[in-house]
Amino acid sequence: MKAPPFSYVRAASIADLFAKWEASGPDARLLAGGQSLLASLAFRLSEPSTLIDVTRVPELGGIAAVGGRVRVGALTTHAELGGNELVRQQVPLLAEAVPLIAHPAIRNRGTVGGSLAYADPAAELPACCVALDAMILARSASAERRIPAAQFFTGPYMTALGEKELIAAVEFPAREQQERSAILELARRTGDYAMAGVVARAQLEGSVLADTRLVLFGVGEAPIMAHAAAAIVTGRPVTGETIGRAQAALDTDLNPPADQHGSSEMKRHLARVLLGRALRRLCGVEEARAA
Amino acid sequence: MSTALNVSLTVNGERVSRRVEARRHLVDFLRLDLGLMGTRTGCEHGICGSCTVRVDGRIVRGCLVLAVSLDGAVVETIEGVSDRGEIRDLQEQFIARNACQCGYCTPGMLMTAADLLRDNPRPTRAQIREHLSGNYCRCTGYHAIVDAVEAAAAGRNARAGP
After folding, report:
1. Residues of chain B found within 8 Å of residue A35, distances taken between Cβ atoms
2. Which residue in A38, A248, B90, B103 has a CA-CA distance of 20 to 30 Å to A157?
3. What is the pLDDT of residue B148?
4. pLDDT per residue over B19-64, tens digit each?
5. Of B81, B123, B134, nearest to B149 (Cα)?
């Protein structure tokens, strides 16, 4: 189908963006990479009066090191994120996640800010942000605020952003020496949204995991922190036995709704399998086998 | 309220200026406004890949880009890369291996395959499949397509020497 008619304006700067947003009606939408928005317009799932193209706003772009953190501008495309040397060195989990996001042609256009603002519960980057304890830098016409990723995703396609507030950038802590991370997902076809996925991040001290963060995606209404499972694997060597107990603990952490991919129990099963693989990956496969 | 705007861009090396409706996506702009019918309209919501074209050197879904957003951009379509011979070897291998079949997905497949070979001259079959995973062939002739891309890469490498 074709998109419904709408007006189009292009913002040249952040001040211009907020001026145009203020002057537009309540149903104006921001257009970044458009990889979700334009598809939803083709389905006529929404009919905005105006699209405000933000892709040429310089304040929303760029990747930079900022005092022990890596700041990723909202307009960074998935392809730029995956290919950026600073990201590959300092936040390698993101570079590992990029090939799982859609397809090359979409990664060339879709943006980090767009993906986070869209907040698909099966998307990779929201889960990465929660696992990495990233900070969302939100901006309105009059104020800036920092929102921890764990508080940002409030439901399916819902975020903590207010009216006429946007994502300017995301800040990720640079990886520590001992830090290990992994992202794994299961999809029926390469590039599809995940039926289930897991992001795991921890400090590996000898053979013991510390500060473990386990985040599941595609199995709930938003990225889900698996607190019970993380508690089991934290502070002790990861053995086959502890992995099994962590997998069982997912029953406490998750209550996946059935969806087009399968039943709640099937999604629980996929989550358990992925968690086991991710934990072995964090510790190195050999250690886990020896245990 | 008129929602049409002027846009000026470069398409296959030629400067073009048109007045287009804001909602018109790049594929319709190419096909209906410029008469470049090589790029296909498929699903029109970003799934099938049949509308794959280059914008500023990188492949994109033509149906997920608004024409009005491309002021100043450089667009290349199957007509452009075909006419200047950039993908002649890929096209010859698609013909030799009957990788076109009905031909509907072929322009998008060629644009995506060319994108892969530019960055990765020696792809494995798995890498070819991965890169083409967003391009659907409803004749399901995927094996022949992967064969053709693999053969074109081998040919380029043979010509380039070890």
Report:
1. 46, 61, 64
2. A248
3. 98
4. 999 999 999 999 999 999 999 999 999 999 999 999 999 999 999 9
5. B123
Is the Cβ–Cβ distance between A22 and A30 less than 8 Å? Answer: no
The answer, for B68 touching chain A at a CB cutoff of 8 Å, is yes
Nearest CB partner across the interface for A109, out of B22, B23, B60: B60
Q: Is B44 on the interface with A (CB under 8 A)?
A: yes
Taking an 8 Å cut-off on Cβ atoms, the answer to whether B45 and A39 are in contact is: yes
**Domains of chain A in sequence order:** 7-53 (3.30.43.10), 58-173 (3.30.465.10), 179-290 (3.30.390.50)
Listed by number, the residues of chain A in 140-199 with a beta carbon closer than 8 Å to a beta carbon of chain B are 189-191
The DSSP code for A163 is T
Distance from CA of A279 to the nearest CA of B (A): 26
Distance CA A174, CA B152 (A): 42
Q: Do A53 and B69 touch (CB under 8 A)?
A: yes
Identify the closest residue of chain B to A39 by CA–CA distance. B45
- Of A188, A174, A92, A85, residue with least CA distance to A135: A174
SS3 state of residue A232: helix
Residues 6+ apart with CB under 8 A from A257: A220, A221, A264
What SS3 state is found at A76? coil
Nearest-Cα distance to chain B for A180, in Å, is 26
Q: Does A35 touch chain B (CB under 8 A)?
A: yes
- Asked if the Cβ–Cβ distance from A39 to B60 is below 8 Å, we say no
Among partner residues B25, B28, B134, which is closest to A106 by beta-carbon distance?
Answer: B134
Q: Which phi-psi region, left, alpha or beta, contains residue B11 (left: φ > 0; alpha: ψ -120 to 50)?
A: beta
Q: How much is the average pLDDT of A163-192? A: 95
Q: Please answer whether residues A113 and A32 qualify as being in contact, where contact means their C-beta atoms are separated by less than 8 angstroms.
A: yes
Average pLDDT over every residue of A110-133: 98
Query: How much is the CA Rg of chain A, to the nearest whole Å?
Result: 20
Residue A39 contacts B where some CB pair is shorter than 8 Å: yes
Please check whether residue A84 is in contact with residue A63, taking contact to mean a CB–CB distance below 8 angstroms.
yes
For the stretch B119-155, pLDDT in tens is 999 999 999 999 999 999 999 889 999 999 999 999 9
Complex ipTM: 0.96
